[in-house]
Amino acid sequence: DIQMTQSPSALSASVGDKITITCRASQSIKTWLAWYQQKPGKAPKLLIYKASSLEGGVPSRFSGSGSGTEFSLTISSLQPDDFATYYCQQYNTDAPYTFGQGTKLEIK
Amino acid sequence: QVQLQESGPGLVKPSQTLSLTCTVSGDSISSTTYYWNWIRQPAGKGLEWIGRIYTSGDTKYNPSLQSRLTISVDTSKNQFSLELTSVTAADTAVYYCARGKKFGGWFDPWGQGTLVTVSS
User: Fold this and answer.
1) Is there a contact between A102 and B46 if contact means CB atoms under 8 Å apart?
2) What pLDDT is recorded for position A44?
3) Is the pLDDT score of A19 beyond 90?
């Protein structure tokens, strides 16, 4: 299986800050990567697919980049609604799909 | 608007079979564009992909669960189902169903999730 490692595991930031979360794959996954946002008690919500394509309805302050084994999710100016846990997911191989362990974004 | 809804028992005894159904509305499960997936999340932990099914009935399972897992589809009811046998406490989790792009692999949308506890 392809292992996905996110860093940091937790992050404290303030409203208006710019933050970046990194996701590393144990082997090349080209650009077959998605990012999700999850709030407590809720299902994950798709933010980004194909590493950098913004899902419809997702604010433009979210952006994704990367290819191969290194990827990042950037939020350009944090809003109160953005404090949540973020997961990356690879879908390079035809299953099993795997997720990163998550990054919890908290208010400083 | 596509919606998925999980249903099934919230409590299962150890060694028994966990059975869940996902009902899809706003889209046809017979669509050739999507796979239909199960994903789970133990409390306070990360996400684990369980497996998927296509409208034809073709399945793909996570090797870690394959020996205990069956996913099936009922196109007449626009539903797909999960059966996990010989459960233990390690199978306690919130179980989500989700639609996945066939020529992609990302999941959207997801059901709201259902908590299944394995306990005697």
Assistant:
1) yes
2) 98
3) yes
Which pLDDT score is estimated for A86? 98
* Residue A44 with chain B: CB contacts under 8 Å: 47, 96, 107, 110
Q: How far is A65 from chain B (nearest CA, A)?
A: 16
Q: What are phi and psi of A80, to 5 degrees?
A: -55, -35
Burial, B111: exposed, middle or buried (Cβ in 10 Å; 0-12, 13-18, 19+)?
buried
Mean pLDDT of chain A: 96
Q: What is the residue type of A81?
A: D
* Chain segment A61-89, per-residue pLDDT in tens: 999 999 999 999 999 999 999 999 999 99
**Beta partners for residue B114, in sequence order:** B95
Tokens, residue B49: 């992909």
Distance CA A97, CA B63 (A): 11
Say how many C-beta atoms besides its own lie within 10 A of residue B104's C-beta.
Answer: 16
Q: Which of A27, A22, A62, A66 is nearest to A46 (CA)?
A: A62
Number of cross-chain residue pairs from A and B with Cβ atoms under 8 Å apart: 61
DSSP A43-108: --EEEEETTTEEPTTS-TTEEEEEETTEEEEEESS--GGG-SEEEEEE-SSSS--EE---EEEEE-
* Cα–Cα distance, B2 to B110 (Å, whole number): 9
- Measured between CA atoms, the residue of chain B closest to residue A47 is B108
The minimum CA-CA distance between A52 and chain B, rounded to whole Å, is 13
Q: Quick one: how far is CA B13 from the chain centroid?
A: 19
